[in-house]
Each structure stands twice: as C-alpha cells, then as structure tokens.
Amino acid sequence: MQQAAAIVRQRFAVTYDYAVAFTRGCFDPGNGTLATVMDCAATLPRPRCVVFVDLGVASSRPDLAAAITAHFGTRSDLPALVLPPRMMPGGETIKNEAHLIGEMHDIILDHGIDRHSYVVAVGGGAFLDAVGLAASTAHRGVRLIRVPTTVLAQNDGGVGVKTAINRRGAKNQIGTFAPPWAVVNDADFLDMLPARERIAGMAEAVKVALIRDAAFFDWLETSAHRLAALAPEALAWLVRRCAELHMRQIAQGGDPFEQGSARPLDFGHWAAHKLESLSRHHLRHGEAVAIGVALDTRYSVLAGMAPAGIEERVATLLERLGFRLWHPLLAERDASGQPVVLAGLEEFREHLGGRLTVTLLEAVGIGVEVNAMDDVLVGRAIDWLAAREAA
Questions:
Q1: Helix-strand-coil percent breakdown of the chain, rounded to 5?
Q2: Where do runs of H (alpha helix) occur along 52-186?
Q3: Residue 240: partners with Cβ closer than 8 Å, 6 or more residues away
Q4: pLDDT on residue 172
Q5: Using CA atoms, how far apart are residues 75 and 150, in angstroms rounded to an integer?
C-alpha cells in the first residue's frame, strides 16, 4: 500500500516599502532628494554605486554625465560612485538585445556592487525595465534607484514592481517582479521631451482614471486643453495622480506580483501590445494604449456592459489630448479574414498564463474582468474607430 506524501506547508509574508519622490533637478548640487531616498549617510563602510544612463536622454542633455558625477562627488551622504556613468541604448533596443543584460551584469560584478550597494537607472520605461532586470538578478538582487525620464515612466512603469526584456518578437517575455529601492521623478526631464513623447504618456492616465477614479477622469476632461498645450503644472499633477493610482492598485489590489490572471492596469493593452509589435514599435506605447483603450471602451458598450455614450467621452478626450485613434494595421486581415490585431488576445492569454482575463468597463471609474471577447464585436469596435477616422 502506497503511503501518502508528508507535506509541510511553508508560509511567510515580506513587506516592501519604497519611496517615490517628486522633485526638480535631482542632480543639482543642493538637491538632497537622492540622499534622502538612499538613506545611507551613516552606513559604514560607505556603499558603492554605478549609474546607467539612457543614451537618448544623454544626447538630449550633454551635461548630464558630468552633473551626475559632480553630484556624487560633492556629497558625503551619497554612495561612492565607482566609475563614470555608463551609457546604454534606450527604447526597445535594450529590451531586444539580451547581451546588454550580460554587459550590465559584468559592470555590476566587476565593480563590487553587492546587495548593500546601488544601481541607479536614468532613462525611459523600456530602459528601466532592462536595467531593473540586470539589477534584480545580479547577486539575486541589488538596490535599484529609478530615475524615470518620460511621462510614461514617471506615471506608470517606473513606480511599479516589474522588470522585463523582450524575446522572440514578443514584449516582456523574460523578467522578474522586483520592487525598486526608491524612485525619483524629476520633472526637469519631462521639459526636454518632444511634444509627441509627453502626450503619449498621458494615455496611461486616461486608462487608470477609467478603471479606478471617475473624479480624475473628470479632471482630465476639464484640463484637456492645458494638457494638450503641455502646461507644466497640469502635466505635473497628471503624473502625480496617475502614479498614486498605479501605486494604490499594486499595494491594495491583492495581487502585486500578478500570480492570478487579472491585470486591471492592462486595460486596453491586449490590442496595444499587438499594434506595437506589428508596427515594429514605430507606434509609441502610449499611442497604442490610447487606441486600445478606445477600442475596448467601445467594445464594452457593444457588449452591453457600459452605458452608451461613454465611448464618445473617452474618444473625445483622447483626441483632444492629441491622440489619433486609428492605425492602418487595424484594417489588416489574416488568411481567414479576421483582423490581425485579434491575435493579440491569444498572445495576451499566453503571457498571463491560464485562461484569458481582460479588463473592460462598467462605467467611468469602474473596471470589470471578463474571460472572453466576441470576435464579431471586436470587429465592430474596429469599424467604429475607422468611421471616426473617416469623419
């Protein structure tokens, strides 16, 4: 007779606590934000630090490397910078070139960056994803300070707990869940961005307002003219409130490391990710999210889940902010006559694991999870976007 296995169940909880700071000029001589969030002034021996900088950011601000070096060199309450800031490719390039993770590993290991030392990443969301993966896997995790430099990174990915690179042409296939040691959102970096980049980051604010905060959505509507004009104070509040809502979802949503199938913060993203890859990333992430949000809002109305008229509010807001809610790839069909973007649903399911779970809308500020989408209704939602484009 076969004996039953003896099972001893292990259970423990780990508390994560990290600061998200909002400032200007974080590398200016008199700015103590980095020293505050690192909190290592009394640590002996003095911790060590390496800084990786997004090449695109460095090219926009030629004085950045010198400013970083001077900041660390003149403050005794910061870790010791063990080499000049290292420039690495930004954007999807760093996420598509796995060997760059190895290069960062070598720099971390060669310069004695241990688990009480720091990696500082200065760049956009894709850059933070890749540097975060390197930092989270060297020594099973070293302390990461993120300095996001785009609207999208400051109000969304930069304040979250995920790292990733791409694999086999699909986004975020290799990665970890690894909360940062701290995040420093420096508004000065946003001032340097082209208008297209600043506007693209606003899509995530519309997304999170739709699923979690009706009052914030109302504010976005009344402030759309200032946001479209890139008024600094309006953009600063958008970044701050959007970041707070993302942080609240991670902390209070019950699944910070996404062990279940629901991904409420990915509202509109099943189509967005597919459009990004089909366009070879010529379509910005935020631009693709805007299309995906409009598509899924219209679908929610067609499926009888949300009241008629909500899709007009959402589309009008996105268009007033400066988004185009159509891309020719939406019109492309596969061999069976189906929209090619529909393949994004299966890719989304595979990435999540288990059964498909998609967030749709019940009302402004209220998201709801579903486990299937009707291909015919998706097609009708695409037709609606096409009609708006033609009008």
A1: 50, 15, 35
A2: 55-60, 64-74, 91-96, 99-110, 125-137, 151-155
A3: 22, 155
A4: 87
A5: 27
| 43 three-class SS | coil
Q: Which domains does the chain have, with CATH numbers?
A: 19-191 (3.40.50.1970), 195-390 (1.20.1090.10)
Question: Are the CB atoms for 289 and 316 separated by under 8 Å?
Answer: no
Q: What is the pLDDT of residue 391?
A: 85
Which amino acid is residue 218, in one-letter code?
D
Rounded Cα distance, 105 and 114, in Å:
11
In sequence order, the 6+-apart residues with CB closer than 8 A to the CB of 308 are: 301
Tokens found for residue 147:
């300095």
- Least confident window among 19-23, 172-176, 231-235, 258-262: 258-262
pLDDT of residue 261: 66
The pTM assigned to this predicted structure is: 0.91
Q: Cα(308)–Cα(44) distance, rounded to whole angstroms?
A: 62
pLDDT band for 314, please (50, 70, 90 cuts).
very high
- What's the rounded Cα separation, in Å, for the pair 369 and 81? 46
Which two structure tokens, joined as six digits, stand for 240?
Answer: 């701050």
Of 84-88, 188-192, 332-336, 352-356, the least confident: 352-356
Terminal-to-terminal C-alpha distance of the chain:
75
Of residues 36, 231, 200, 205, the one with CA closest to residue 124: 200
Secondary structure class of 174 (helix, strand, coil): strand
Q: Examine the pLDDT at 154 and tell me if it is beyond 90.
A: yes
DSSP state of 346: H
**Look-up: residue for tokens 């001893």?**
8
What is the CB-side half-sphere exposure of residue 103 using CA atoms within 13 A? 12
pLDDT computed for residue 347 by the predictor: 87
